[in-house]
Amino acid sequence: MLLSESARMTTAHEAKYRVQYPNSKPRAVKVIALDEGSAKLVDDISKQGWHGAAFFTSLSFDAGAAPGAEGKTLKAWLNDLAGRTLDLVSEVAASDCVVVVATAGKDVQSTAMIAEVCGMHHKTLIALVVPDEDAPDESIDVSLRALRPYAKMLVIAHGRDYIEAMLTALRA
């Protein structure tokens, strides 16, 4: 009897060639809220059982540490959900990728600094724009245009479920 390829691959003889451990591990994903609305969403999402994700609700930096300023030392801090202040550069360096979450139409200028640090450490920056239910399309367009120069992946995320699915796909 001739076995199909699938049937042949499930035999005990072929099983000894299978890799006996999972082929993926959790990634160190840093999730950064860029505004007050997205901070509430990030806080809510963080309560799920994540393996390698760290969540931050705000970013602060020295005015003299503007992106692209020559001779300046980059001094920026992230505030995590427990209220601790952590160094942006160290957190990005220890990550596999960085996800920024922004409410449509809100200020996303701090993304330039995050993108600069991601570039220094060769980390991928993913941007998620979350529109309000009654947000005009123009506010979404403004956010997309502001984030496009910095993000390797730019997504309109319609709500919490979408963001959770994205983080799951990133193995956070």
User: What is the H/E order?
Assistant: HHEHEEEHEHEHEH
Shape: elongated
CATH third-level topology:
Rossmann fold
What is the C-level CATH assignment? Alpha Beta
Number of domains: 1
Number of helices: 7
The CATH architecture category equals: 3-Layer(aba) Sandwich
Number of strands: 7
Summarize the biggest pleated sheet: 7 strands, mixed
Strand order of the largest sheet: 4-3-2-1-5-6-7
Share of residues in helices? 25-40%
Residue-averaged pLDDT: 87
Spatial extent as radius of gyration? 20 Å
Percent strand equals 15-25%
Distance between the termini: 46 Å
Summary?
This protein is of the alpha/beta class and 172 residues long. It has helices spanning 5-9, 12-15, 36-45, 88-93, 111-120, 137-147, 160-169; strands at 29-33, 53-61, 76-80, 85-87, 97-103, 124-130, 153-156.
Keywords:
alpha/beta; elongated; 7 strands; seven-stranded mixed β-sheet; 172 residues; Rossmann fold; 23% strand
Protein architecture, described:
The protein is α/β, with parallel strands linked by helices. It has a single domain (21-169), classed as Rossmann fold (3-Layer(aba) Sandwich), CATH 3.40.50. The protein is 33% helix and 23% strand. It is built from seven helices and seven strands, in the order ααβαβββαβαβαβα. The chain has a seven-stranded mixed β-sheet, with helices on both faces. β6 (124-130), α6 and β7 form a beta-alpha-beta unit. It is elongated.
Give the topology, please:
Layout: H1 5-9, H2 12-15, E1 29-33, H3 36-45, E2 53-61, E3 76-80, E4 85-87, H4 88-93, E5 97-103, H5 111-120, E6 124-130, H6 137-147, E7 153-156, H7 160-169
Parallel strand pairs: 1-2, 1-5, 5-6, 6-7
Antiparallel strand pairs: 2-3, 3-4
